[in-house]
């Protein structure tokens, strides 16, 4: 019985658990669930490719960069910025910045989706 291959992943033929890559010099890989031993040669010829969605790893720097790409809009709405709405996924929102906490702490940015009017806030 040999491991089931799906793309670049190998699964245990007995219990279906994802098998880990063999370390250098290892001749077998042991399933963490059922202790099935799979030969390391099962990994030969497999090309491993990974892709990450841009929003998969939130970053404070990316967040600041996004809020700086803005244009001023007239009225009481605030500033129109490139920000993804967590409710509807629209890519523009109005933002207003306020100092709600003590002076030695960051400000709070209030967002309102320009499409669905959903509101949320981020502590800066």
From TrEMBL:
Places the protein is found: Nucleus, Nucleolus
GO cellular component annotations of the record: nuclear DNA-directed RNA polymerase complex; RNA polymerase I complex
Function as written in the Swiss-Prot or TrEMBL entry: DNA-dependent RNA polymerase catalyzes the transcription of DNA into RNA using the four ribonucleoside triphosphates as substrates.
Region (Disordered): 52-78
Major site of localization recorded for this protein: nucleus
Binding sites annotated in the UniProt record for Zn(2+) 1: 12, 15, 31, 34
SMART domains to which the protein is assigned, alphabetical: RPOL9, ZnF_C2C2
InterPro entries assigned: Rpa12/Rpb9/Rpc10/TFS (IPR012164), Zn_ribbon_RPA12_C (IPR034004), Zn_ribbon_RPB9 (IPR001529), Znf_TFIIS (IPR001222)
CDD domains: Zn-ribbon_RPA12 (cd10507)
Occurrences of domain TFIIS-type (ranges): 81-121
Protein name: DNA-directed RNA polymerase subunit
Organism of provenance: Amanita thiersii Skay4041
First and last residues of each zinc finger (C4-type): 12-34
